[in-house]
Every structure is written in structure tokens, then in C-alpha cells.
């Protein structure tokens, strides 16, 4: 069985075994949601779905501010207050309240009417069921998704040369659907379960800077050279680094109630590049990395029995 981004076989989606640091749910949830803007982004239903996730281009001579085009708000580098200097300073001082990189995941399943509803990842799925994952980060960065089947060789399924112009740039609190709810066909809007058995593991990698040695955008397009279904496979060095990051402890918060439908604002935000606000539903699963890392790696198991 081979996992594909648009359509693949699975049966049960569960959080894979990983180190979990103890922290109260309110602390994790608060740390993740505090950077959401108070007000919703302006919604224009006539805006076409987003088709590119390439990193924003900054103007020469100006500071790069990725949030300027996002649906989020926050102080720019030029407006942030600089703490007063003292008689002595360290060579590389760390910010007093350094933001920890966080990842939110929400699993949706397709109900009898074809609508998306929040679903417990430990639910046992049946043949014909469909699921979708909504990804949200609390910082601008890059998302990579790798897959292994039955603990086999890893394959990168996102970024993809045929999707989003081979880009993988995410803006803080602007959600990302896997797969997209605006796919051209029903089968492309859901991850479908069939009768074929096999254990799948998804590796979600969130980084503040692009991963060295991993092609994205034009480099990935050139690598695939128009070959449909092209999949890049990480080198041993790259994969060793990802597995090492996956072993790092995370602080986590998991929802206890499910069954609520996906909101209109969530769907529009993910398809049109808008930011979620504080009063929008939080992710079902929130993970926070330590304050001294710029990379977060977590895994989801898709177990088909």
C-alpha cells in the first residue's frame, strides 16, 4: 500500500508514541492561542481559493514582514520596543519571553451528509470513511509531511511539485487543510479508507527556516521535471535529523469533546489564506516545543487492520 496526499488507505488515526512533557492543558492552550488576533480577518467569499504557498518576497532594503499579507496581526520588527541597555550585555542574549513553536492538529471526518465534523483520533474507522486534517501553527514557518508504510523508507508527500506551486510556507494561525476541501473531485477532498491493510505513519515537521537539503518551490519542480506522482525521498542525513527531532519531548493538550461541525470561518480561512481569531475553535490537539528549538516534529499513526 502506498500513501498519497490526495487519496490513501487507513483505518485508525492515533498519536504515535512520543515523549510528552507534563504541563497543564490551560498552559499549553493559552501559550498557543495567545498569538491569535482578537478580531477576525476580513472575509471575502469572492476571493478565489489559495493556490500557492511559496514564501513571500520582501522588497529590497526593507525588513521582511511575512505577516503583512497574512490574516494575522502583530507588531513588526520596526515597532517592537528595544529594552534599555545596561552597563554590561551578553554577546547573544536570549529574548526574555521567547515564543515556543507550536502546532495544532484537528481531525475531521465526513458525516452522512458529506460535511466535516471534529473526530476523536482514536476512533476506529471503517471502509468508505473519509478524514481530513487541519493544521495550524503559531508562528510563520515551513511545513513538511513525510510518510512511512509499515516502517519502510520515508517519502515526502508535502511539499508536492503538483500542489501549491511546490511551496510549503505557512503563516501564523492561517490554517492548512490536508487534503483541501475545495478539491476538484470528492475523492480528492478526503483521505479515504479502503480494504487494504497497512500501517501508515505521518511525520509533521514545522520549521522556522527551510530544512537544509530538502527541495522546495522551483528546486522541487525541477527535481520532478513534470513527472506526475513524483515523490522526493530524504537522504539518510536528513532523515536522521528528523527522527532525532521527533524524539524531543513536547507539551500537549488534547480535546475531550468531539462531534462539532467545521465552522465556516475555519473552512474559508484554510482555503483563502485568512487568519483564525481568538473566538474561533481551537485545534483538537495542540503541541508545544521547548523554547530553545526552531523545529517541531510530531507523528500521527494511521493503522489499518
Tell me what you see in this structure.
It is built from 4 helices and 14 strands. By secondary structure, the protein is an alpha+beta fold. The strands form 2 sheets. Strands 2, 3, 4, 5, 9, 10, 12 and 13 form an 8-stranded mixed beta sheet that branches. The longest helix is centred in the C-terminal third of the chain and has 11 residues, at 236-246. The protein is globular, with a radius of gyration of 19 Å. The relative contact order is 0.28.
Briefly, what is this?
The chain has helices spanning 25-33, 217-224, 236-246, 264-272, and strands at residues 12-15, 20-21, 102-110, 116-118, 130-137, 141-149, 155-158, 169-170, 176-178, 191-192, 198-207, 250-254, 285-288, 295-304.
Could you list some keywords that capture this structure?
305 residues; alpha+beta; eight-stranded mixed sheet; six-stranded antiparallel sheet; globular
Amino acid at each position: 500500500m502506498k500513501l498519497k496526499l490526495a487519496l490513501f488507505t487507513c483505518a485508525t488515526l492515533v498519536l504515535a508514541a512520543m515523549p510528552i512533557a507534563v504541563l497543564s492543558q490551560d498552559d499549553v492552550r493559552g501559550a498557543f492561542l495567545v498569538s491569535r488576533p482578537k478580531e477576525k480577518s476580513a472575509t471575502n467569499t469572492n476571493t478565489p481559493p489559495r493556490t500557492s504557498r511559496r514564501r513571500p518576497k520582501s522588497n529590497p532594503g526593507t525588513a521582511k514582514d511575512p505577516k503583512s499579507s497574512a490574516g494575522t496581526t502583530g507588531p513588526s520588527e520596526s515597532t517592537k520596543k528595544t529594552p534599555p541597555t545596561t552597563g554590561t550585555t551578553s554577546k547573544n542574549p536570549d529574548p526574555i519571553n521567547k515564543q515556543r513553536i507550536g502546532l495544532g492538529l484537528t481531525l475531521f471526518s465526513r458525516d452522512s451528509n458529506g460535511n466535516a465534523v471534529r473526530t476523536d483520533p482514536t476512533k476506529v474507522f471503517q471502509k468508505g470513511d473519509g478524514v481530513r486534517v487541519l493544521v495550524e501553527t503559531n508562528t510563520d514557518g515551513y511545513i513538511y509531511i513525510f510518510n512511512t508504510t509499515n516502517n519502510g523508507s520515508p517519502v515526502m508527500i508535502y511539499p508536492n511539485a503538483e500542489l501549491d506551486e511546490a511551496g510549503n510556507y505557512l503563516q501564523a494561525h492561517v490554517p492548512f487543510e490536508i487534503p483541501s476541501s475545495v478539491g476538484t473531485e470528492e475523492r480528492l477532498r478526503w483521505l479515504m479508507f479502503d480494504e487494504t491493510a497497512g500501517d501508515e505513519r505521518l511525520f509533521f515537521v514545522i520549521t522556522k527556516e527551510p530544512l537544509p537539503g530538502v527541495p522546495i518551490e522551483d528546486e522541487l519542480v525541477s527535481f520532478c521535471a513534470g513527472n506526475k506522482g513524483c515523490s522526493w525521498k530524504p537522504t539518510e542525513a536528513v532523515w536522521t535529523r528528523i527522527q532525532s527531532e521527533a524524539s524531543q519531548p513536547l507539551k500537549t493538550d488534547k480535546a475531550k469533546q468531539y462531534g462539532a461541525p467545521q465552522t465556516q470561518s475555519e473552512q474559508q480561512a484554510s482555503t483563502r489564506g485568512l487568519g483564525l481569531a481568538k473566538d474561533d475553535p481551537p485545534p483538537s490537539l495542540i503541541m508545544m516545543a521547548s523554547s530553545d528549538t526552531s523545529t517541531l516534529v510530531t507523528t500521527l499513526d494511521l493503522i489499518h487492520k
